[in-house]
Structure formats: C-alpha cells, structure tokens
Amino acid sequence: MGTPNTTPTEIKRNGTAGLSINWLDGAQTRISSETLRRECPCAGCKEKRGDTSHSKPLTGKKLSLTIVESSLEQELQLQEIWGVGQYALGMRWGDGHESGIYPFSLLREIGSANA
Ligand SMILES: [Zn+2]
C-alpha cells in the first residue's frame, strides 16, 4: 500500500557521507552513513545488534552505537545505492556488504529521528 509520506521524490547522495531525501509531502530528511549502516535491516546485521523483533517501533531514545569488527571506516563508506522495485533502496558498503534492503518507510523513520 504505502502512504504519501513514505514516497520519495528525490534521493541525493552526499558523497559517501549519507543521503538527503525529499518526500512527497514536502519534508526533507538527511541520514548519515553511520545511521544507515547501524540500521541495516538485513538479517545478519539485525542478529548482530541483538534485534530479533521485526517491527519494534523506534523510540526517541538512541541506543548506543555498537562497534563491529573489521574496519569501521570501510563499513561506513556508502559506495552505491540503487532502487529496489518501487519501495526500497539497496546499498553497497565499503566492506562489500550489500544485503540490506531499506524500505522507504524505514528511511523516513530513521531520517526524521536524526533531523
Ligand atoms: Zn546488513
């Protein structure tokens, strides 16, 4: 289904620093690479975070950042994004990770949390 406010009209990459997204309702959000990677919705990353519930709503409180193994610098390097159907973005990171599919609703959620 989808609601108007999770429909992006423009998605801009800020180099490797993150994304700016304009939404259909006129809002604009920015999401840093760090946040994007931390919120990676793939099964592997969810498991790493110990986040086993599927639709736990985000609260205003920030969880502490978990530092994962290997080069953090590489992990936070957003290398490429691409559209997945009409509803999501795929992303590839500097360490080769690319299994996270980010639905626009998730991007809107984590974007506004960091506005
Ligand atoms: Zn992941």
Question: What keyword list fits this structure?
Answer:
binds zinc ion, 115 residues, 29% strand, alpha+beta, globular, NE0471 N-terminal domain-like, 6 strands, three-stranded antiparallel β-sheet
Would you kindly provide a written description of the structure presented here, covering whatever features stand out?
- The protein has a single domain (4-52, 61-113), classed as 2-Layer Sandwich (NE0471 N-terminal domain-like), CATH 3.30.2020.
- It is globular, with a radius of gyration of 14 Å.
- The protein has helices at residues 33-38, 43-49, 72-75, 104-113; strands at residues 8-13, 18-23, 28-32, 78-84, 88-93, 101-103.
- The mean pLDDT is 83.
- It contains four helices and six strands; from the N terminus they run βββαααβββα.
- The two termini are 26 Å apart.
- Helices cover 23% and strands 29% of the residues.
- It is an alpha+beta fold and 115 residues long.
- It has a three-stranded antiparallel sheet. Strands 4-5-6 form a three-stranded antiparallel sheet.
- Zinc ion binds at residues 40, 42, 44-45, 97, 99-100.
Short characterization:
With 115 residues, the chain is an alpha+beta fold. It has helices at residues 33-38, 43-49, 72-75, 104-113, and strands spanning 8-13, 18-23, 28-32, 78-84, 88-93, 101-103. The protein has a 3-stranded antiparallel sheet. Strands 4-5-6 form a 3-stranded antiparallel sheet.
Number of domains: 1
- Report helical residue fraction: 10-25%
How many beta-strand elements? 6
The tally of helices reads: 4
**What is the CATH class designation?**
Alpha Beta
- The residue-averaged pLDDT reads 83
